[in-house]
Amino acid sequence: MANIVTAVLGFLLLGLIAAYFKFLYRKLRPGEPPIAPGHWFWGNCIQFKEHAVKFLLKTHAMCGDVFTVRFLNQHITMVLDIHSYERFSREKNFDFHAIEKQVNRNVFQYELVNSRKMIREAGQKVNGRHLFSSMENFAQNLTEAFKETISGEADTQASSNSNILKADAAMQDQSEKVKKLNILNTAPSATTRNNSAINDINSVSSVHQQPSPAPSLASPDDTTSDPIININNDTIGQKVSSWHEDDLRNFASRIFFSPLFYSIFGRGVKGQEKSFQPQVFHKMFDQFHKYFNFLWLGVPPQLFPEAVKAGAVLGQQPHSGEMVKRDGCSEYIKFATEFMLKHGQTEREIVSHNLVFLHVNYNTFRVVYWCMYKLMEEAGVMAALKAEVDEVIEAKRSGATPEEAVAEFTADDINKMPAVDSFLKEIFRCMSGVFMIRKVLKDTSFTTESGAVYNMREGDRVAIYPPAFHYDPEIYEDPETFKYDRYIDATFYKNGKEIKHPVIGFGSLCPGQKLAILEIKWFIINLINSFKLELLDGERTMPNINMYGHEILPPTHDVRCRFLAKEKPVKLTYFNNFGTANTHREEERS
Ligand code: HEM
């Protein structure tokens, strides 16, 4: 018996050693970059999770510009040379498609047919003339959201959302449709989960609907802080003519996420939308998003019941035929829906794609959260931006009386405000967590800008890691400090050479970059024009460095703030001037 046990243990050990050499250990081939020191089993997982930027900068100092890190059995070669960004982006053997496929399959559980063509063509629906019309759509929705928040209607709506969900929960049947549309429909009891998700919302509701909610220490991505129902009953329906307290995330959701949602999916018939509402989706999306990094790496969704529950609610969307007819539905969604239907994709796949699109847009919300926070954190930042915004508005202002005062902005006007522009770049510098990652399609010799050659192995991943550039003390003086004016008339150097792209928040492929920047800047201008806002005493937060890998880092926890609608602000309007000669030239230049 003892002999058998010894033999089994021996085989097991041999198996483990063989598995180690097959999957984890790597013998370098000639010309391959060095491997970063790490744990024999985890590789560099722990170092990366503890503080990705510090780990990479330290390894860079040890190994040079190009080196390979390992996450369990996944090798990723890091190209940490900012001057090689363009070469990296242009390299045909470095493929983003495989990464996008992995996200679609593992996180959103579907496959996009002919995805390269779809994204290339759909991407045009937010650029060129569509950039201007998409922006017009967003600006109208933003004005609406500000009006609703100032009049108190947004609170009333949020409260009625909660009622809709209660009614919905009561009415929930065993509908097959709901089961089929659950994007994480991994087990047969999707409907039950769906009900319990809704019930969860309602149970949180009763906890949160207290006259004076305590300051929330929950992460903004934490479901315990509920955006739908975290409402002070005393203020529901009241005009915001006195100071009004809220969680920052909640406030940002109402004045930014809502208009963003409507700009993507349009508006249905008021009062008949059940759970397909921005505040419901925001809440559920956050819940789902928390597990993004695990799902992306292929961990089964069944391990995250909270994500599955959220998936059930997120799956409840209008039928595609209805969606494209909604008032203000984006050209992107219309195009993508038509494309997918032509390629024989199902309703469930269309639903999943809609969520992918919301996912990429969600980054814009995260940036806005940080913009609001940084405006409040230091009085000097708000004062400087306010001075610029007031000055530009004053110069554009028309109308004889304060009631009639209007200032009209074009996209060029919005982009030509140096303090706003620099502030936003600094937000991206400090808050980006993005991996610009590609799959190596075949063995490739990659030459860096300085002429060094590295052999990249087929099947590996290769990445640029912008946050490591953004916090490089050789590029940025005092990189840990937030300086809103860092980018005004400034140039940056590394190894004595000027850097062409000092901030890389969007990777090289994001088709939504121009739209996101315009939307955020327009939001900042409107926010400063319409509201006074402050953090409550002692409220501070910071980016959650454990979330490196997310495009924009979430905060470690939410903060409480208070805001006051300004008396008679100048009415701001966005003017779509696409078609004028100047605009074409600006577009071509950028
Ligand atoms: C602040 C907001 C945003 C950030 C930080 C952001 C960031 C990114 C990043 C880092 C990538 C990967 C690119 C690469 O690796 O080269 C990406 C891809 C993408 N983004 Fe954005 N994005 C934002 C807003 C948007 C918006 C508003 C849209 C809407 C059109 C959008 C659509 C996409 C799409 C479709 C892709 C996939 C591109 C492909 O597969 O080729 N993004 N984004």
UniProtKB/TrEMBL annotation:
Gene3D superfamilies attached here?
Cytochrome P450 (1.10.630.10)
Name the domain of life. Answer: Eukaryota
Its source organism is Plakobranchus ocellatus
Q: State the UniProt keywords alphabetically.
A: Heme, Iron, Lipid metabolism, Metal-binding, Steroid metabolism
| Pfam families with a match to the protein in the record | p450
BP terms from Gene Ontology: bile acid biosynthetic process; cholesterol homeostasis
Q: Where is this region: Disordered?
A: 205-226
- What is the name listed in the Swiss-Prot or TrEMBL entry for this protein? Cytochrome P450
Q: Which residues bind heme?
A: C510
Q: So what family is this one in?
A: Belongs to the cytochrome P450 family.
UniProt-recorded Gene Ontology molecular function terms: heme binding; iron ion binding; oxidoreductase activity, acting on paired donors, with incorporation or reduction of molecular oxygen; steroid hydroxylase activity
Q: Could you tell me which InterPro entries the record lists for this protein?
A: CYP450_sterol_14alpha_dmase, Cyt_P450, Cyt_P450_E_grp-I, Cyt_P450_sf
Cofactor(s) the protein needs:
heme
